[in-house]
Write a structure and sequence with these properties.
The chain is α+β, with helices and mostly antiparallel strands. It has one domain (2-197). 44% of the residues lie in helices and 38% in strands. It is built from 5 helices and 8 strands. Strands 1-2-8 form a 3-stranded mixed sheet, with no helix packed on it. Strands 5-6-7 form a 3-stranded antiparallel sheet. Helix 1 (2-54) runs antiparallel to helix 3. The longest helix is centred in the N-terminal third of the chain and has 53 residues, at 2-54. It is elongated. The chain starts with a helix and ends with a strand. The relative contact order is 0.18.
Length: 198
């Protein structure tokens, strides 16, 4: 009889633990994704802004316009060396900023783990350590867009795609953020250049 009571109590405890873990998993996944997304977005944008401010000269010397004797734009030359340096520098800054999230983790109010709206945001904060795994891809956008009569906008940009996965107790989260860095944007009045040198 005593043995049955012990087994019953253990069964109840295990069932309760599984129910709490399942609920906690769902809450942490939702909460963690929001917090981590905002953190990645803020950090990467801040790093891009700082890098652009510190390397204005490189942005200004990316593109050279060649004109003929009549003042007509004949070609646009891209400084590949500066572009490669900018891309490499930005990639390095972005990866470093994402790596810092590992040491920070995020805090969850105890009330949020209960799952009741009444206690949402209340109670002591529990520190959740994260183990981030991220990849970074970069692509270049080199676009000529016709606007109006004989007006063309030339746009050169780098698009960074951050794929982020973070594992933590009772859950994990996976998401992707895209960041576009406009390197230069020019309005060309008149004919579209005959030659583009990359």
């Amino acid at each position: 009889m005593k043995k049955r009571k012990i087994i019953f109590i253990l069964f109840c405890i295990i069932t309760l633990f599984i129910a709490i873990a399942y609920r906690t998993d769902a809450v942490l996944e939702q909460y963690g994704e929001t917090v981590l997304k905002n953190s990645v977005y803020a950090r990467v944008n801040s790093q891009i802004k700082d890098y652009a401010t510190d390397n204005t000269h490189m942005f200004n010397s990316l593109v050279t316009h060649q004109f003929d004797e009549n003042g007509t734009l004949r070609s646009i030359e891209l400084n590949s060396g500066n572009l490669a340096a900018l891309q490499s520098g930005l990639e390095s800054e972005i990866l470093c900023s994402i790596a810092e999230i590992h040491s920070e983790g995020f805090n969850v109010p105890m009330g949020n783990l209960i799952g009741s709206k009444l206690f949402s945001g209340r109670g002591p904060h529990i520190k959740i350590q994260t183990m981030p795994l991220s990849t970074l891809e970069c692509s270049m956008v080199n676009d000529f867009e016709s606007v109006g009569i004989n007006h063309t906008i030339h746009k050169l940009a780098l698009v960074f795609t951050v794929s982020f996965k973070a594992a933590y107790p009772f859950g994990d989260t996976v998401f992707e953020n895209r960041f576009q860095v406009t390197l230069c944007e020019n309005i060309i009045i008149g004919e579209v250049p005959l030659v583009y040198v990359n």
